[in-house]
Amino acid sequence: MPKKVYFISGIDTDSGKTFATGILAKTLMNQGKTVITQKLAQTGCTDISIDIIKHRELMGIDLLEEDLLKITCPYCFEIPASPHLAAKIEDKVIDCAIIDKNTKTLSLKYDYVLLEGAGGLLVPINDDIYTIDFIKERNYPVILVTSAKIGSINHTLLSIEACKNRGITIAGIIFNLYPKVDIAIEQNSKQIIKLKFLEIYPHSFFVDLPILTDTNTFYTDLSF
Q1: How confident is the model at residue 222 (pLDDT cuts 50, 70, 90)?
Q2: Which of its termini does the chain have fewer beta carbons within 10 Å around, N or C?
Q3: pLDDT score for 216
Q4: Could you give the CA distance from residue 14 to residue 205 in angstroms, rounded to a whole number?
């Protein structure tokens, strides 16, 4: 599989991974790289992935031909549920081989492919595979999105341990500053997560995801 495919996962649903994916894509664009985002599967919509649309908005570009052809997200389901269940309700099955084929197609054209998951690492894709095992089988490095909301320390450290135990590289953690919480909670959560993370992955990055009021605000010196 391509070397420059990164899997973007959150610690849970609504962690901010869609915003993080779009901002990372814009960062790479600003560095002169060609980059495209991909979505594992989308629930809660019926046409083009709403997360792909948000990525393009953050990147400052229109929808791409690959988006219109559903290469960047071949699976969209109406029910806002776990992908395996949303697919089952529509009497469909998510085929990982199709996702792989599309990733390979994209990687032949772009320097980087940022593949955003659905929910957390242990979300089932279908009856046969969990997201974390999909990642492991393809040897994708992970970029994990977390925050200071209630439960995030536990969810983040469990995600880190799960990746460590499977030999999965976490290339970086993005700490989402939204929703805003008490500053003492935010700082303590960040301190605990960062300390444990860099103890296990000392050469990885740890950056904040700011509350965006200006979509032209992006990372400038981040490399991965």
Answers
A1: confident
A2: N
A3: 58
A4: 22
SS3 state of residue 43 = strand
Total structural domains within the chain: 1
Q: Please report whether residue 223 resides in a domain.
A: no
The rounded mean pLDDT for the chain is: 93
The pLDDT-based confidence of 217 (bands split at 50, 70, 90) is low
Q: Quick one: average pLDDT of 28-53?
A: 95
Concerning whether 39 is annotated as a catalytic residue, the answer is yes
**125 near 96, Cβ under 8 Å?**
yes
Structural domain includes residue 121: yes
The CATH number given to whatever domain includes residue 82 is 3.40.50.300
d(CA 218, CA 183): 23
Q: Angle, to 10 degrees, between the axis of helix 152-166 and the axis of helix 183-200?
A: 10
Cα angle vertex 12, ends 9, 13, to 5°? 95
Alpha-helix residue ranges (DSSP H) falling in 61-125: 65-68, 83-89, 96-109
Q: Choosing from 17, 26, 33, 39, which is the catalytic residue?
A: 39
